[in-house]
Amino acid sequence: MPSVDLPADTTDPVDDSSDAVMNASVTETRELDVESAEWLRDLGERGIAREQALTRLHELLLRIARSELRRRSGQHPITGPELDDLAHQATADALLAITAKLEKFRGESRFTTWAYKFVILEVSAKLGRHFWQRPTVALETEDWDKLPDRFGMGPADQAQWHDLVIALRRAVEEELSERQRQVFVAIVLNGVPLDTLVVQMGSNRNAIYKTMFDARRKLRAALAANGYSAASGDPIAGVPADVDTGKAIMTDWDELDRFLQTDPRDVGCEQAMQILHVYVELIHENGAEDADTRSGEAGRRYPGVAAHLAACGPCGEDFHGLLAAIGANS
To answer: What's the CA gap between 71 and 73, in Å, rounded?
Structure first.
């Protein structure tokens, strides 16, 4: 059987600053499994053999798309024929992408795991576009009254979080760029899905995530400089060492602080999705040992991916979708 090189994690901080340090890539040899070799052979043929393989793959991807849309049923209102049409659209686009990139399959995972990733990502894209076509909230709305509910700040503690919300709003207005403010308001205040912003702003997931990543880092530093911190003495990026970051410690701040925290190991959406099939298969193979993706074998081998999946809701959703897909079809 042919052998392929398997890359390990190349961790690049999501801020891609000029002084970012890229870890050296480590390769190992892995043989292509029999089933994957058969898929590549049949899809590489001409005539009836290829057509039959494409039909089998289409059926497989359609099953995954339908299952993933059912799994996400609580996140969208789509039902009936419209839902099935969405599954067919995701399948068709995924099949086109797979056949166009067939030569790029390196054998780091089983072929089916790699292929499932395409249809999972297409489902995400289709749901994002559907939200934008039928928005439930105006993207330019800026309703700060919604913030406490989004972070579990109860009315009984209003005296504590009232000043925090004022400080956060001031930081958003004074510290963020206009684009960062737009993204923060849309995602945090209005609950607009990140993939919908991708469509609305004519951008891509990685760029929107990076904008939000930078905004979170700025806001946490600004709040810390004004005395807000979940734990006294915690070092916070961008804050001078002589600034007391423990003046106001409150329970309601904890969840917001966790949201604003950024991990310099975070590789961003693009790199995480490039290697998602490898990461997910490693977790699937290790079973319960990798229940915590950051402390298990996958997290130790690919810490930048683990950090990203813990912070990025859409990529985390794709991770769970792919893991469910290979679990149900292994």
So the answer is: 6
